[in-house]
Amino acid sequence: MISIIIVGYNGRSYIDDCLSSINASSYKHLRIIFVDNASVDYSATHIKRKFPKVILLESRRNLGFAGGNNLGIKKAIDLGTDYVFLLNQDTIIDKECLNSLIKKADQNTILQPLILLYENGKQTKLINTTGNYLNFLGIGFCRDYRKNMDDAIEEEIPTASGAAVLIPLKALKEVGTFDELFFMYYEDVDLFWRMRLHGYSIKLIPEAKVWHKYSFGSNKNKLYFAERNRLLFMLKNFSSKYLLVISPAFVVNELCTIAYAAISGWGIKKIMSYYSIISIRREIFDYRKINSEIISETAPSLKKYIGPDVTFSEVNSIFLRPYARLVKTYYQIIYDLL
Asked: What pLDDT shows up at residue 320?
């Protein structure tokens, strides 16, 4: 049994394409759980009328991506399931996607389908992501963005993307679900890195395809959560030794980010991200105390999943190229110490 969990927030325009593609799937041993995150566009009413077989959970408030998925995962576990398939509301799955995943599935591996771009009303052969790349300073971004789908191969990847991913029930029971401190952004990086810390494998299965109606946005709230949660992710999951070794580059990165934020008009949001981290310092400390052994013991073996790159094609700045060279040079110097 695969339980497909979709968290929706004011996404009525996406619902028909997404749910219809699931209904057309050749794999039939599944259920759909749709979590409506307090939408005001009558998404829930539309689902009740047009897709009555969907299990609809209506939240009275916006729980964020993390809380919404947790609500759906809990329902899936209560009903009984073998796998959970997280899926964004603005996606379309190939009819053979779930079949391709289940053929490679086991209870010790998280499986990432190939997520392709859906542009101008068409399914393209351009990659949205093959999972999340993770920079050693905690910066996560799409792997292989806008490359051709033929370049994708089955392989181990650093972390998976929450936009579409198959997770075995065993991993969720052992490691837990999303950390709701994140609310949105980096919650998937955090969850799948924690699963790596517990010995789970994460693989890309390129024959399993999903199309994503992706658009890159950089509003102030998104930038706030991205920066806040990058810091939260690092402070939760990296060993004290690791944080000490990278600290010079980390300080330079923060100064550059503050300067860029000030120039770009979201400097206040960047400062607010620090205050937010300070306000939840007790939760971070408690988590590190409970998980200190697994964080410190497994960190060295996981450094192969972290790299030096900081480039992303939709972010343009004249300072990005020299900054990227500086960061990469420092990474090469400290690699053996990590």
From this structure: 74
- Direct distance between the N- and C-terminal alpha carbons of the chain, in angstroms, rounded to an integer: 41
Rounded to whole angstroms, what are the CA distances from 181 to 139, 191, 225, 283?
18, 12, 11, 9
- Total tally of structural domains belonging to the chain: 2
Closest CA to 144 of 160, 162, 131, 163: 131
Domain that holds residue 147: 2-212
pLDDT of 215 reads 79
Do 264 and 193 reside in the same domain of the chain?
A: no
Would 217 be classed as within a structural domain? Answer: no
- What is the CATH classification number for the domain harbouring 157? 3.90.550.10
The interaxial angle of helices 220-237 and 281-298, nearest 10 deg, is: 50
Residues of the chain with pLDDT under 70: 216-218, 298-299, 312-319
User: Domain end: 190, 212, 234, which one?
Assistant: 212
> What is the pLDDT at residue 324?
84
Same domain, 251 and 190: no
Residue 322's pLDDT is 83
> Which pLDDT does position 43 carry in this prediction?
96
